[in-house]
Amino acid sequence: MNDTEMEAAALSGISSIGEAVSGRGENVHYQPQDQDEDEDDDDDVYYIPPRRPSLDLGNGAMDISNWHRVDHAVAPALSYCSMKSEENADNMEDMEDEDEEGCSTRIHLYRADSFSSCYSFDSDDCEKRTPKDKDIEEDVPELTDRPELITDPNEIRHPSLTVAFTFKAICKTLKELSDENLKTVKMMLWNRYPQTFTTPPHSMDIVDLVDRLLECYSLEVSLQITRSILEEMERKKLVDYLKTLCLRNEVRHDLSETLKKKYGKVCEGFTTQGAKTPIDDIYTNLFITTTCDNGPNIEHEVMTIEKLDSNREEGTRLSIDDIMSARRLQDMNMRSLLITGVAGSGKSMAVQKLILDWIEEKSHQHVTFLFPLPFRELKQFEGSKVSLLEIIQTLYPETKRLRDEDYRSDNCKMLFVFDGLDEYKGNLDFQNTELLCDHTDPTSLNIIVVNLLRSRLLYRGLFIITTRPQVKRCIPWDAHYDEIEVRGFCDSEKDEYFKKKFQDPDQAARVIEYISSLKTLRIMCHLPLFCSLVAEECQRLFTEQGADAELPRSITYMYTKLLLALTRHHRMSRAPELKPEDERDFLMKLGKLAFNMLEQGQFKMIKSDWKEVGISDEEAVVNSGLCTQYVTKPFVLFQEKVISFIHPTMQEYLAALYVFLSYSNHGKNIFEQHLKQKVRGMLKGHKKMDLYKSAVDRSLQCEDGKLDLFLRFLFGMATKTNLELIQPFCTSSLKWPTVIKDAMALIKKKLSEHHPPGRKNNLQRCLEELDWSASGAAAASS
């Protein structure tokens, strides 16, 4: 072979440049396979086409004078994440704004395939690798199998559909898949939505995968994509699971809106009408402890009172977040929680704050649904056949969308809050009441309540019950409930309450200074109810008299307001209204007991001895709330129920009220013997100052000061403002025109005599009680 023939043969072994440039393949949708499979099947996927005859350029030099410079292939468009220019960044912000506003339209960003990604040629032999025709036919349907994502532009997005929820819902659903199924999901996403991913998503974890999905699509479309892929994988249970999450989320949102309107604001004081205050603006942390049966607060201005309870441990202080928290549920292994406390200690306020925190997602997020069912609202179902499900759906209509399995699922925690068990007057018979296990069975309200307390109904539910101390004694020990106690405010919280109550810092400072100057008021402000009464009175004076208003010095007046709040307003929801004569009789009997115990230095009574005084313990503890009941353990393995007044000063106040009403209604001076009193009445009649002279003399004889507060209350009873409040307890109109002047003269006379400093100081305090209504007294004397 000559040189010319050898050169021609060499040239025939390569393809021409023209063939290489023009050898463009079709833009075929490529389905990625596992790497190992790609390497093994590489020869099956591609074949080398027959070589075309080479272009004979001859022996001369190639003429390139007419060649033109060819630009590089245009780079592909930047992905959704990698847009860096200001213009593109602005476009992205616009799209995000539209998505947040609930617009269901969106812009699809498709990657423009580059020249090199679509067409290729071998640099050595310019042999084109062309996919086989049979594979083209198999890949084309993949494009048609991609589901059409349809969104209604007029559809209004439910407010509960947020980025946070959608992210969690899709993540929770995908986590239910096995590793192999998750790989399948990733491959299907890559095949159908290649514009979403810059690289194959095989290396992405679930968080990155869902994050990328939400970055490229709207919330609705992201959920639709997830559902369609799961449906094609025939994972019906997971499709239903995702739909269930969305349904529960919508119901939860609607329920939260209802609860926010109902419990977001609070009305303090005597009435439930008028302006209400947002609970966050007024709520102050309460003293909640794991130790129960603590008895009343025994802090006293004058006396040192021995411990009334028998608890040896102080217990752990809890916050609202700790009540029924996920950790506490796990540690205590309980489903029911009993919250007790004396009247006015803040039990209802505590659960109201818990409800609001759940609504605002600040706490208790392990609870899917929270249903407040106050006993005062449950009374409407008395006397009729009703199921627990009907009760819930009547009070909260948005729950009608829930299904039966939602009430029975371990993944759907429901918390029921029953506020005010002491307001329920049904027969709590735990031995003979019919067993009820189905929340859909109609029955009486009493059967539902008993079975709830026995934890037989909705055994996957969680229950919080608030009550005054006596009622808890009827709940059987085997009901498996935990118990905590609300004890009102600690000292620092008292100041915090008034700072929140008064928006004007100067007024708040004045009120705090005022209650600090009266130690008994300061002590009694451990009850949130009493704090609200003091704040209400001060606010009234600021409104009527201006910022320089003179605040009341009479503690008697504030205690009378507390008495009326408990026996009138708070009693209304617990028992029928008492007739005036029955109300007087009850207060006289309770006051007589208070006076006799005070003289003996007693502040608690065994319940078995209570019946001898002829007073209903239910009326004293539950209905009126003037007393409290608790258990003491004087000996090992021995318990006894005892009853005390809600505070020692309330016992002293009721004792003074009894003495005052005995004289004003019956002309009886309880400090004098019956015969002596009868003779004096026959000779010169009763004089009002005889009562006060006897009381002062008896008080001065008590070196321990056990009658000091009693004497202050007795003088405070005679002021005009207080007489107006206690008039309903009197049998006739009280007109004591000169009693204030005569009482002040009596006290000043006793101050001039020789008495111990402690007794003289108390007499000075008695003068402050009379000064409360100096202007009123002057008007009365005239």
Automatic annotation (TrEMBL):
Pyrin domain location: 161-248
InterPro entries in the record: DAPIN, DEATH-like_dom_sf, NACHT-assoc, NACHT_NTPase, NLR, NLRP_HD2, NOD1/2_WH, P-loop_NTPase
The name this protein goes by in its record: Protein NLRC3
Keyword annotations from UniProtKB, A to Z: ATP-binding, Cytoplasm, Leucine-rich repeat, Nucleotide-binding, Repeat
Acidic residues: compositionally biased ranges: 34-44
PROSITE patterns with a match to the protein in the record: DAPIN, NACHT
Spans annotated as Disordered: 1-44
NACHT domain boundaries: 335-469
Keyword Transcription regulation: no
GO cellular component, one term: cytoplasm
Localization, UniProt: Cytoplasm
Any GO MF annotation of the entry: ATP binding
Organism the protein comes from: Xyrichtys novacula
Principal location: cytoplasm
Lineage: Eukaryota, Metazoa, Chordata, Craniata, Vertebrata
